[in-house]
Amino acid sequence: MAKLPVDELNIIQSFGPHLSPRTRGTSSDEPDKLVKTHCCFCGQQCGLQLKVRGNEVVGFEPWEDFPFNRGMLCPKGVKRYLQGSHTDRLLHALARDPSAPSGFRAIAYDDAIQQTAAAIERIQSKHGPGAVGLLGGASLTTEKTYLLGKFARVCLKTPFIDYNGRLCMVSAGAANKKSFGIDRTTNPWSDMVGTEVIWVAGSNVAECSPITTNYIWQARELGAKVIVQDPRITPIARTCDIFVPIKPGRDAAMFAGVLQLMIENGWIDEDFIAEHTVGFDAVAAYCREWTPARTAEVTGVPERTVRAVAELWGMAKSSFLFHARGIEHHSNGVENSLGTINLVLASGRLGRPKSGYGTIVGQANGQGGREHGQKCDQLPGWRDISNPEHRKYIASVWGVDEADIPGPGVDAYELFRKIDAGEIKALLAICFNPKVSLPDNQFVTRALEKLEFFAAIDFFLNDTARHADIVLPGSLHEEDEGTVTQVEGRVIKINKAVDCPGDAKQDWVIIQDIARALGRPHGFTFESPRAIFEELRVASKGGVADYSGITYEKIDQQMGVFWPCYSHDPQTGEPAPEHPGTPRLFEEGSYNPVAKGKGRFYFPDGKARFNVATYRPAVDDASDEYPIYLTTGRVVSQFLSGTQTRRIGPLVAQYPEPRVEMHPRLAEKLGVADRDWVTCETRRGSITLRAMVVTTIRPDTVFIPYHWAGPKSANRLTVAAQDPISKIPQYKVCGCRVVKADAAPAYDVELEAQQ
Questions:
Q1: Is a pLDDT exceeding 80 seen at residue 29?
Q2: Do β-strands 319-323 and 734-740 pair in parallel, antiparallel, or remain unpaired?
Q3: Spatial contact of 368 and 382, defined as CB atoms under 8 Å apart
Q4: Cα-atom radius of gyration of the chain, to the nearest Å?
Q5: pTM for this entry
């Protein structure tokens, strides 16, 4: 049973998080070498140069030549080098030991591999292949995600694999697939400079994607008008031209209302719609009911603002529309995303410079991490695991019988439901901390405790790994090489700067060592990430996410390659080793292997799809019992579950603890002053945090960042409702009630020193 081996405070005292203000070296040390690579955090994947002295990263230098960020970094990028020599770094494999004060004892790496393999073999022999589940991560290199998907299906023969990208951009991905036939942002960010209008919907870019904000500023300096849609006046909203103060969960209604006004006023591109799309009439019919008055009533946005947005967007000659988790983390996240695409298609402003559409990727490899096989329903190249032809092709690449490849599995949250039901008995997790990051995470904890065996791969003992039977010490970004695909769709290369310390191993080595210990090494004898990538190129060939024309050398030469990049000309079939990639999708006259010359979009008829984007009220919305809207999100100095950033002293100093952000009117009603302790309660649980009283949030809404664990975890409160198509959780809205707390919580004394 994967219960905590000892009290959690004892584990924290031994394994952290502890604060480390700096490495053993200093950033002023003269380095032995500079290694050009990329930040380990968000989907922007900014270029930087790591300063290496001996076998230690001691600082960084700007990489001004890398075209995306041109040397600029956010606070996380500036301090990311501080984790390499951190005192919490796992240097040895660990085995659960309740008799040890810390709950774990160090064991030999080979013993840990053998124990992991023996447990998997025992459980699968008794309960079948599907008794073992895998959870991967969207911050892993594409080589690792490809290998993990192959490992699940070929070595373990289990269908039950999914990844934490399920919590990121899957709603946008589903909408892109339904509308365009391809899931990628349409333009490089440089295309933004010179556009007339930029609409940012549900994305706190200034804190979550600061370099993206710089592109918006450049566009604004050249005259662009900026629309920001959010329940909070985020930093980017403070300088926008139109702020849309929407109630959480009402975005689809706003988009329908704007489209209705565009149709009514003739602000649509009828020629583009007729020539390049299908399905417009059904969408127009649905939008008729969304009058400005009704839109305002449902969304909480003043009618004059709805009209102003429609006029500015509708009358523009060039534009960009971006969105992120703010509109996607909903039980209707796909509809919200489809609503934005309908606006873009109706405008006709697509497939050309200075006009485009895209989703701002949250995780380091949020794009590449979902394209090549670790999603529960996908095979490499963005192929459908249920499609016989797709299965046949991948089986030929892997050298297995097509019938031996399992069918589709379940999403990450449903995987925990299967653990809770006793169907999945063992779990292997890498680069995923669900005890913090999944909604209603107390349920996740209870499910973890039912596992017969749990093995975790990580470089810190994250909050979930504290439950593990075996912990295998993995690698940092700078200790390996491989590729990731950043926010624009640009495939870039992570370069190795130092070796793994102690007994830590590169993650792809660990996966293959488990396969070897199981006596199932077929297909798992790669000697390098480059070798894995070469197989991935073959596996992706002919898929929509075609990487076959990308090589490590081409990435270096071009400073990244935009996919699709073909090894053979998609029109003639002739070898095309110099194919440069595809920076801008859907350009006039473009050819793709799905449409075969019939049009720009990735459907057999070459036409994009309008889709009716129905507004549906949120599951567990605000109510008489829970009258306040709770929404969650990020802050600039912390990242995801906080496993890394809660250990970096300068970042913790910027934002040391989560707060309940509320409007002064709500604070006055509750009798709360700034920094008072307040308790926020939903149907799942409650947490007590300090209040942050601000004027930059709706008076009917509170905001809590989600990077903290245990009694500080916002996901103790969130609801496990999911979008029926994408299965993304509804993090961005649920009903809550807030009261002034009688006293400070116990953790304020117990854990503050560590966290």
A1: no
A2: unpaired
A3: no
A4: 25
A5: 0.96
